[in-house]
Amino acid sequence: MTKDFSRRSxxxxxxAATLGSVAALAxxxxxxxxxxxxxxxxxxxxxxxxxxxxxxxxxxxxxxxxTDLLIIGAGCAGLAAxxxxxxxxxxxxxxxxxxxxxxxxEYFGAVNTKYTKEAGQEVDKxxxxxxxxxxxxxxxxxxxxxxWLDESAECFEWVDDLVQKATGKTVYLExxxxxxxxxxxxxxxxxxxxxxxxxxLRNNVYQQYIEGAGHTIYFEHELVKLVHDGEGxxxxxxxxxxxxxxxxxxxxxxxxxxxxxxxxPTMIEALQPNVPRCVTANSYSxxxxxxxxxxxxxxxxAMDEVPxxxxxxxxxxxxxxxxxxxxxxxxxxxxxTIFQLNMGSQPFMAVNRNGVRFTNESLPYDNICNAxxxxxxxxxxxxxxxxxxxxxxxxAQAGCARLTTDPIRQxxxxxxxCATALEPGVMKKADTIEELAxxxxxxxxxxxxxxxxxxxxxxxxxAQADEDFGxxxxxxxxxxxxxxxxxxxxxxxxxxxxxxTINEEMQVLNTxxxxxxxxxxxxxxxxxxxxxxxxxxxxxxxCGRSSTQGRHxxxxxxxxx
Length: 561
Fold this sequence. Notes:
19 helices, alpha/beta, FAD, Flavocytochrome C3, Chain A, domain 1, FAD/NAD(P)-binding domain, 8-stranded mixed sheet, single chain, 6-stranded mixed sheet
């Protein structure tokens, strides 16, 4: 196990985390976003995103294949299922609409692996179960959750063997901080392969392993519809659109591993009205358009009733930019040109457009975004001073916010870490607080409020007690030492994690709660785990459960469980 990384690798990763492929699409000019659909709108408008199931005539099918397991989606869950099926000798086919496997999220949450035990960090499974269920207000299906709790260690150690043999990388275990005083429990579950985000990543290793065993991943196969009985009780295959026409694959079992619907603005506006009120940046795969979820709903499946976006507080934008979509329909996009500025997750003072602080900044990433949804423009302004490196070291943030903490501890400067925001002028830097206020767009009463708020925040720091919003003393900081920095943020939308209703075998359920024979779902297109908010202090949970679910399905079908 290694914890040593070069400063160069951290800075490279920080840069990669701030520049998105969507940047050129969004533009920098402040615009007024379109209003979100009301969550109280009529059922016709709120269901228009689903549309009617396409009709494909038998005469249009150019070819057909048969298999025992059809895996739709070459991402975290689908590739884990396929690699497991490779091991166990299952007859399977993998199809994906893209030209390559999906990007890897390096974080992998796993409970009580050999690495956590060696580090003396054994996790209390029941406490972890209750903590995750608390995030969802009790809407977590604990039987589904137990699959991750009980099988993720075996899954990760299997993945680890593949990755180490293929790349020589070693495991970095993130020791979770004690957040008892914050009112949260953070178990040590996050594993990464170091040096991370370099060379072949996990999904590439899966692909090499699958193809090396003689199997083919069929790319440019766009899912059109499932083959089903029309009664919500059985699925027997799927139809795909390819460059050669429509292809039908008949299968005894179909696994949907198609991701969420973050890249479908129509679905977001209908199902997640809070997202356009507080999100400014696109940090999701443009391929995650909800198409897999829609095909299952056409086949009679049920979906989670409570939405759950994954939002991080890193959507840096320029002065005057509001949260929300720019454009209409499928062309709508969030306005940010930096998909994630990691500095946004540090708990520095934050104010609204009136120059007033409005929340405790030391909470899971999405909390300040949700609070900002009730503020002017849906955005917040983070402010800190030249002593920020010492503050960041003391804050000791959890999860991927450490992509700021760790390089700071190795000598990186604020200007280096935030170069992609400072150079285009999205983040402001000034010699005085008054100058910074002007640069951040505060004027008149708002400027006076802002200056008074800085004075008040300094008082709270001196007293080592946040009497206004209850932030922990060690996460307070002074704003006195030049240079001064400020930046406006909204949320950065990573994915959606409400999805198809499933049971503990990942079998998709219909609207009556009965199993749809032959249909499974894993990863972000599946549901029954999360509601309202992602448990961000259970670091790596999303990727860990996706891989574990995919592996579980293949093992179950092979009789290995």
